[in-house]
Amino acid sequence: MNFKKIITYFILGFCGLVMVIPFAWMLTTSVKSQLEVNKGNVGFSFFEESDIYTENGKDYYATIVKEDADSSYVHLFDVEMNRIRSYAKVPNTAIRHEKKVKLHWENFALAFNKVPFGRYFLNTIIVSCCVVIGVLITGSLASYAFATMKFKGQDFIFYLFISMMMVPQPVYLIPSYVLLNHLGWIDTYQALIVPWIANIFTIFLLRQQFKTIPRDLFDAAEIDGCSRFKILWKIVLPLSKSVIATAAIFGFIGSWNSFMWPLIMTDSPELRVLQVGLSYFSQEASTQTSLLMAASTFSILPLVILFVIAQKQIIASFASSGLKG
To answer: How many CB atoms lie within 10 A of CB 157?
Structure first.
């Protein structure tokens, strides 16, 4: 292995490590007690140091506020870190200090039951699936037109589409709100789905793929009497499965992680999607960082599984569409 490859692998490994660290921190924090987080133990260690006060055979977490001779004033917490008593005066002999490895797996159940995550998951799945279906339909038709048809202003319209990718979402957020409000779609599923059923990146990705298909196939199909739609359905789409899978995955991930748009366009708790639900969870339990990390962990789990299953298709589509490197 030459020096250039060593440097390349080192840089790639370092970048990969930097990207993994936030996920590792999220996972380690999700299995810590809130008391440990409040004490500033937010590193990657699983050792837990805590003062335990035993009363009537029951253990409570204790934070010592002030020592007074052979007694101490403490705050007492239950296992869910709910404060039971404040400034309780207890004998020092009833308090023991523990340091051990302890993983609080119950954080995941507590977080899931804290707010209606089942409803948030359902809303997110409905919105994401509808958006993906819409994106694939509109993206396929638009890409097919840009890749295979000749019409006036073709390049201008395409580059106009591409330029729209540079416009940040906050710029068109307020005009979009005004438009949807005029249509009466605010706080409805339409507001979450319809504006996102056309995706410029998907159009670009599919156009790049469609342009790689030999023109002879189109000519042969036309000679056999195929219509434009039949050529798209019978020839183009079957030859572009990997790119379509990638477009679907990116569309699903983008919709799943959407936060600002559903936050502005909806207000009803019944229409909250997962990311908005996490936000409200954070506001309503702002000090419970461990529960928030636990909720964040199971909220991204479907995306991780989806990526692991479809990673070959993603790599293959990048290679075939010329986006690699």
So the answer is: 14
Pull the structure tokens for residue 291. Answer: 């529960």
Question: Whole-angstrom Cα distance, residue 40 to residue 4?
Answer: 42
User: Angle at which helices 200-210 and 117-148 pack, to 10 degrees?
Assistant: 40
Residue 199 DSSP SS3: coil
Structure tokens at 39: 């004490």
Which residue in 321, 131, 312 sits closest to 207, CA to CA?
Answer: 321
> What is the structure's pLDDT at 318?
63
Contact 267, 187 (CB under 8 A): yes
Measure the CA–CA gap between 111 and 288, rounded to whole angstroms. 10
Rounded distance, CA 212 to CA 209, Å? 5
For residue 77 the two structure tokens come to 């917490």
| Residues paired with 97 in a beta bridge | 51
Has this prediction a pTM greater than 0.90? no
How many CA atoms are closer than 13 Å to the CA of 233, on its beta-carbon side? 5
Please report which confidence band the pLDDT of residue 31 belongs to, taking 50, 70 and 90 as the band edges: confident
CA distance 208 to 212: 7
DSSP 3-state of 151: coil
Residue 325: is it exposed, middle or buried by C-beta count within 10 angstroms (0-12/13-18/19+)?
A: exposed
Alpha carbons within 13 A on the beta-carbon side of 141: 8
For 321, phi and psi rounded to 5 degrees?
-95, 0
| CA dihedral (18, 112, 192, 208) positive or negative | positive
